[in-house]
Design brief:
The structure is a single chain. By secondary structure, the protein is an alpha/beta fold. It has a single domain, classed as 3-Layer(aba) Sandwich (Rossmann fold). Helix content is 41%, strand content 19%. It is globular and about 45 Å long. The chain starts with a strand and ends with a strand.
Amino acid sequence: MSRSILVPHDGSTNAQAAFRYALETFPNARIVLFHAIDPFEVTASDEQLAPLTDDWLDEQRSQAERLLEDAQANLELDGHDDDGNRNERLSRVEIETETGVGSPAQVIVAAVDETDTDQIVIGNRGQSGAAGARMGSTAETVVKRSDVPVTVVR
């Protein structure tokens, strides 16, 4: 049975570390690079939530596509061995990309069935320092609610 790994990616360095870990640890697996579009995310520059229109969703999907493309491009730039030679193992892996809309933890857990994956490899965005022993809330919720094994990469 071949493995299928869901790798949620939010553009963070921790998510990129999880992506690299999945590729290196499961070189023959089907990798699904996934981005959760959170309609309720408000950034410091936002005064209020954007209206949830079809145009908004199209823009979010375009941004997600660019984010996932950048993640793969950054991996290719890093995909060289210590002698500067291209890492052939990484260049042979086929990567699928998917998005989902909703609360990130819930969408990630639901994506397991939708993408027919049998494991999740997720980056941890928890706090640093003494509080860093705790996982980030999304990773923690995914671990608690997932029906498949979850690997959290720091």
